[in-house]
Sequence to fold (392 residues):
Amino acid sequence: MSNSPKLARIAMFQHELQTENIDAAILVLSRDIFYYTGTAQPSILVVTPNSFFLIVRRALDFVERETWLPADKLIPGGSFREAAESLKNLGVAKGRLGLEMDVLPAELFLKIAKTFSSFEPINIAQMVLSQRMVKDDDEVAYIRTASAIMNAGHKRILETLTSGMSELDLAAEVEYAHRKAGHEGILSMRNFDFHISHGPLSSGENLLQVSGFANTVTGVGLSPAVPAGPSRRQINKGDLVIVDIPTCHHGYHCDETRTYILGQADPNIVDLFNRLKEISDTTINILKSGVQCREVFAAAHSAACALDVEDLFLGLAPRKGNFVGHGIGLDANEAPILFHNSEFPLQDGFVITIELHLTHPSHGAVKLEDMVLIKENGCEVLSVTERKLFEV
Fold:
C-alpha cells in the first residue's frame, strides 16, 4: 500500500472532527499514534480539521524511518506547550479539544487541561476506535500472519503435551513456539488495570474456576497477584486442556482458542465438543455486513438451546458470559463486542472473533474461538489451526 491510502486515515479522522465541531485533537496512546502514523515512538499527534503534525519526543531517527507522514509534519520536541503553540500558529487558540479519555491517566489529563485551559475537553476515544474497526488490506495481511504464528503454538502442544507436565510448562512451550515463529511478545488490551499472563491456559478442575477478569475460561494463574492464566497444576491423562494464548504481528493480534485432551476422549466429551462446534458453525454461517451483534449472539444461543446445552452455554450460572466474540486488531480485545443486547451492525472489513465455550459440571469445559473477516455477503475464517478436539 502506498502512503496516500494510509494518510487517508488522518483525512477520515479530520472529517469526523469537523462533523463533530471539534477544533483539535491530541493523541498520546502509542496504539492510536501507530495507527495514524506508522510509528509507535514516544510522540504527540495533533490533528485539526485542516492540518496535523507529530511532535516527536524521542528517537526522531526511528520515526523518520518508520512513518508515512511527510517530513514537514514532524516536529522534534516533546511538550504539550509546544503542541499548544503550534495550534496557536494555526489559528486554533481555543475551542473543543478531543482527547483519548478512556485511557488517559488523571495526572496526564490534568496536565493537558492546564496547558490547554482555553479548550473544552471532549472524549474522542470512540471516534478513533470506530475508525480502527474497519481493517484495510495491510491490516488483514498482518492478522493472517499472526494467525499463522498462532498455529506454530498449537503444533508445539501436539509435540510436547505429556502426563505430569504443568500448565505453566505447557504455556512456556506454546509461548516459545510463538516467539520463534515471529510473535512480537505483547498482549495489548485497552483496559485500565488489566493484568494477565501472556494468555489463558487451563486444565482439569481449573476449567471450572473462572477469574473475575472475564466470564470465560481464564485459568487461575500462579498467585492471587495475577489470578488468571496457567498455574503449576499437573496435567494428567484424561484431562481437558484449553489454550487461549494470543499472538501479535506488526502490532496486530490473533486470538484463537483450541481444546485438547490428554489421551482418548470419553464419548461424553466428544459429544460435548461436537455440539460446541455445531453452535460455532451456525454462528459463523450468519456473519456478514449488516448483521447486528445481538443477532449473532441470538444465533449462538438458539443453537445451544436446540442442542440441549443452554445450561452449559458460556459457562455455568451465575457466571455465564453475555457475549460471543469481539473485535480484534491493534488490541486483542476491541470494539465491537458481540453482546447479547447490542444493536451495533457488523461491517465489511471488520475482523472479529467468535468465542464460544460449553462448561459441564462433571466433564469440564470445551472452547472454540476463531478469527473471522466480515465481508459484504458473508465472511472468511482466518484461523489456520484445524477446528477440532485434539486428542494427544
